[in-house]
Structure formats: structure tokens, C-alpha cells
Amino acid sequence: MTNDCLFCRIVAGEIPATVVHETDETLAFRDIGPKAPVHVLVIPKVHHTDVSELAVADPGLAGKVLAACAAVAAGEGLGEGGFRVIFNSGPHSGQEVFHVHAHVLGGKPLGPMVS
Ligand code: 5GP
Ligand code: ZN
Predict the structure, then answer these.
(1) What is the ipTM of this complex?
(2) CA-based, 20 to 30 A from 29: which of 23, 70, 74, 92?
(3) Motif Histidine triad motif: where (predicted)?
């Protein structure tokens, strides 16, 4: 728990969120500003800054975050249409919250990736 981290505070129940999936080690909740009909954020409950740091510190947990993304997509009915998973990391990515999170996006054709 990092006191000044928004997503640690969501894990602690101090800030409300619409939770759609939870395991012992991961939490998934709807993005407050959805960019697609389905836009869910998947996080490890313990604090890691970004995907690079998580992958080195705890690759098993990184795998569990990805498994949670797949479970969210299935639970949201994205099996047929498919979905996109994005980790923003570092200044060029536009990462704004420095608790690693996967964006799970779907529910419509998403178009090409940005270059
Ligand atoms: P980033 O740009 O860091 O990859 O994405 C951060 C995401 O967190 C954004 O899509 C933003 O809409 C979302 N977000 C920011 N504050 C909150 C919040 O208080 N609750 C929820 N559910 N999402 C948030
Ligand atoms: Zn945190």
C-alpha cells in the first residue's frame, strides 16, 4: 500500500470503483473515463510502478495480471469480437497512474493502433 497511490487506495477500499473481477492478487474495475464500450483496468493488488518493473520484480504476478485480463474479456462477452490489452509505460506512453495497470478494451471495432 502506497498512501499517495490512487490505485492502492482503490485496492484498500478508500476510493470507490466498479469492480468486475477479483482474485487474491489482482483487481479489475471499470475505467472512470471509458475509451470503448468495455474499458476495464486490471491491476496487481500490490504496488508496482509499471509493467517493466513488475516483469522483473514478479514475473509470476505479471502472468496472473494477464490471466485476469483474459478472464475479464470473457466475463464482458468479448470472446467473439476480441479485445485489446494495453500497458502504458514511460513518458512517451502517456502513463498517468504509476501503479501498473492493463487497459482491457473492446465492444466495438477499435481501429488501427496509433504509431
Ligand atoms: P494511464 O494513462 O495511466 O495508462 O491510465 C490511467 C487510467 O486511469 C485512465 O484511463 C483514467 O481514465 C483512469 N482513472 C483515473 N482516475 C481514476 C479513478 O479514480 N477511478 C477509475 N476507475 N479510473 C481512473
Ligand atoms: Zn499503488
Answers:
(1) 0.99
(2) 92
(3) 99-103
